[in-house]
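Need residues for this backbone.
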């Protein structure tokens, strides 16, 4: 059974522990290696790999340190070229490729963000469960069948963002970037409605904005829409 632990989520850092009961993996490593070790209960030696979506610091901060712990770190060529560091443990690939990692079969796919070759991940366990992970993207052109777990960014709601701009709490220029780089509540709903959720056990909402989101509202509205358990990372 898939177990998800959120070590950090948001603009200050992102890191998630995902295990199917056989093979633990990290998705993102945007916090210090010391924090990753502590939050994992000093079980980092169990981790079989780390998947990184793109080169922004809140997702890749400790990639060299994770690699130095003996863990292979997977990223796109664009991410690697923009990171400025390297390791023999870095595994460089492209969207559309398959990664075999312990009991996981992982498919990478394109997402839309202001980064070089950002990736989403579709993880299929040999136990039969299937998880999709999408963050830092304003939409997904892909649909997925028979998912059991969804991890998706829900950064902002358009009405909250507009109110913050009107009141001066958010600069108007930020709206243009958000609309072309981050998932809104509205787009998350569209994505969920476009996909097969019949077997979904959990939906995790990731990377909520500290100013342009409402945790309780987002959880409530997604639960009402889907009828599924929703967790805020």
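Answer:
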């Amino acid at each position: 059974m898939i177990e998800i632990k959120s070590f950090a989520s948001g603009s200050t850092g992102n890191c998630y522990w995902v295990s199917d009961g056989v093979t633990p993996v990290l998705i993102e490593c945007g916090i210090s290696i010391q924090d990753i070790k502590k939050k994992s209960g000093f079980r980092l030696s169990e981790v079989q790999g780390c998947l990184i979506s793109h080169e922004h610091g809140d997702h890749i901060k400790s990639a060299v340190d994770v690699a130095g712990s003996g863990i292979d770190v997977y990223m796109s060529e664009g991410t690697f070229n923009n990171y400025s560091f390297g390791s023999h443990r870095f595994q460089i690939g492209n969207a559309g490729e398959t990664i075999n990692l312990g009991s996981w079969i992982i498919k990478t796919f394109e997402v839309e963000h202001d980064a070089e070759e950002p990736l989403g991940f579709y993880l299929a366990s040999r136990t039969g469960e299937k998880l999709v992970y999408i963050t830092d993207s304003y939409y997904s052109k892909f649909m997925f069948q028979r998912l059991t777990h969804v991890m998706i960014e829900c950064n902002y709601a358009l009405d909250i963002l507009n109110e913050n701009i009107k009141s001066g709490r958010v600069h108007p220029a930020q709206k243009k970037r958000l609309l072309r780089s981050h998932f809104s509540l509205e787009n998350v709903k569209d994505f969920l409605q476009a996909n097969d959720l019949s077997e979904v056990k959990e939906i995790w909402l990731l990377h909520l904005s500290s100013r342009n989101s409402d945790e309780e509202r987002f959880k409530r509205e997604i639960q009402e829409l889907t009828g599924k358990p929703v967790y805020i990372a």
